[in-house]
């Protein structure tokens, strides 16, 4: 199955670790989990947010080559100072021209590195768990916050659960759009299907816990699936 190549960015974890360290609390394990999650998403070849890291000078040498890697024109830019006493520069831009102009205005002797990632409006957010016993459960809700479902902050609008013996999926919603989103999310998970099995039955999906969201590209009516987190099956089981 073909899937998009776009590295993920989990914005926020670094800030938690830095703040906790100032209070004498060690959250190094959280940063480690973040790295492991991003690596696992890449190994599973799942759709992820595009993110680049470069020096300011390298970016400005050939900005088009860097910016053409993004599907979305909406970008989030963070520029790091050479001197730690200076703060980071952040900017959300809606066009590539605006992004380039912002980076060009930065004093290059004071700011050396930059990170750019896609900043796409989130429409639906959800979570998917696949147990080692092949039980599948997924849920989704309409929300503009990527982790609302995983944190239990919104009412679930649709869920999907399989019968591990027959492979038949049962949905809690009659909304065809939500059913399609749940099914297409599952089909992005690496899986094997027996030649003699019917579509949706007999498939063995890579076990684990997945967080995902569906976003808009350039504010158009074109939804794109993004996975933001993965944890191994040994840590999560479907009840």
Given the helix and strand composition, which structural class is it?
Answer: alpha+beta
Low-confidence stretches at least 5 residues in length (pLDDT < 50)? 1-17, 25-35
Radius of gyration: 20 Å
Number of domains: 2
Number of strands: 12
Counted by DSSP, the helix tally is 6
Write up what this structure looks like.
- By secondary structure, this protein is of the alpha+beta class.
- The chain folds into two domains: 13-118, Dna Ligase, domain 1 (2-Layer Sandwich); 122-235, no CATH class.
- Helices cover 24% and strands 31% of the residues.
- It has six helices and twelve strands.
- The longest helix is centred in the first third of the chain and has 16 residues, at 28-43.
What secondary-structure arrangement, pairings included, does this model have?
Elements: H1 13-22, H2 28-43, E1 51-55, H3 56-61, H4 63-67, E2 75-81, E3 89-93, H5 96-104, E4 111-118, E5 122-130, E6 136-142, E7 158-162, E8 169-171, H6 176-187, E9 191-193, E10 203-205, E11 208-216, E12 223-231
Antiparallel strand pairs: 1-4, 2-3, 2-4, 5-6, 5-11, 6-7, 7-8, 9-10, 11-12
Q: What is the structure about, briefly put?
A:
By secondary structure, this protein is an alpha+beta fold. The chain contains six helices and twelve strands.
Features:
single chain; 239 residues; alpha+beta; Dna Ligase, domain 1; 2 domains; four-stranded antiparallel sheet
């Amino acid at each position: 199955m073909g899937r998009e190549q776009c590295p993920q960015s989990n914005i926020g974890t670094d800030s938690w670790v830095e703040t906790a360290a100032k209070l004498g609390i060690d959250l190094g394990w959280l940063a480690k989990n973040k790295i492991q999650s991003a690596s696992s998403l890449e190994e599973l070849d799942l759709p992820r947010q595009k993110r680049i890291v470069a020096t300011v000078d390298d970016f400005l040498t050939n900005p088009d080559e860097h910016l053409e890697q993004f599907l979305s024109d909406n970008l989030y830019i963070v520029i790091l100072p050479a001197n730690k006493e200076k703060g980071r520069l952040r900017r959300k831009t809606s066009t590539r021209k605006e992004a380039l102009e912002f980076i060009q205005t930065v004093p290059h002797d004071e700011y050396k590195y930059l990170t750019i990632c896609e900043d796409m409006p989130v429409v639906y957010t959800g979570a998917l768990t696949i147990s080692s016993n092949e039980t599948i459960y997924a849920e989704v809700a309409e929300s503009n916050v990527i982790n609302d479902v995983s944190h239990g902050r919104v009412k679930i609008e649709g869920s999907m659960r399989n019968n591990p013996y027959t492979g038949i999926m049962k949905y809690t919603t009659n909304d065809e759009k939500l059913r399609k989103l749940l099914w297409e999310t599952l089909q992005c998970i690496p899986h094997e299907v027996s030649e003699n099995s019917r579509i949706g039955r007999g498939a063995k999906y890579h076990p684990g816990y997945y967080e995902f969201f569906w976003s808009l590209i350039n504010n158009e009516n074109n939804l794109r699936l993004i996975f933001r987190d993965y944890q191994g099956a040994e840590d999560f089981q479907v009840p």
